Amino acid sequence: MNAIRIAFVGCVEEGRRSLETLLAMAEDVAAIFTLRPELAARVSGAVPWEGIAQRSGVPLHYVRNINDPEAVEILKGVAPDLLFCIGWTQLLRKAVLELP
């Protein structure tokens, strides 16, 4: 059985802790999405994601909005079976929700 490919979307500490748990469980996290730094600076509780991405070897993608066509195209390329969205500031629209 193949591993379930996971895409993870988050911006704040609660999300990063959840991602750390998935990685500790040796889950197949294929991509991490977070807000662009200039946008994250305006979000209460936003934390940096570069360290966890580097330590885990998982590609980190900065987005303005997870629903933007560019972000959706990246998600399509990741082809996730499962999408975690924890500690995020935007509602996920249909185009994102239909990908996993």
Provide a descriptive summary of the structure in words.
Helix content is 37%, strand content 21%. The chain is an alpha/beta fold. It has a 4-stranded parallel sheet, with helices on both faces. The radius of gyration is 13 Å and the shape is globular. The mean pLDDT is 95.
Task: Give the tags.
100 residues, four-stranded parallel beta sheet, globular
Number of DSSP E strands = 4
Question: For the terminal residues, how far apart are their CA atoms?
Answer: 18 Å
Please give the order of strands in the largest beta sheet: 3-2-1-4
Query: H/E order of the elements?
Result: EHEHHEHEH
Work out the radius of gyration. 13 Å
Percent helix: 25-40%
Low-confidence stretches: none
Structural class: alpha/beta
What summary fits the major beta sheet? 4 strands, parallel
Q: How much of the polypeptide forms β-strand, as a percent range?
A: 15-25%
Determine the number of helices (DSSP H or I, runs of at least 4 residues): 5
Quick one: overall form?
Answer: globular
Overall mean pLDDT stands at 95
Summarize the structure.
The chain is α/β, with parallel strands linked by helices and 100 residues long. The protein is built from five helices and four strands, in the order βαβααβαβα. A four-stranded parallel β-sheet has the order 3-2-1-4, with helices on both faces.
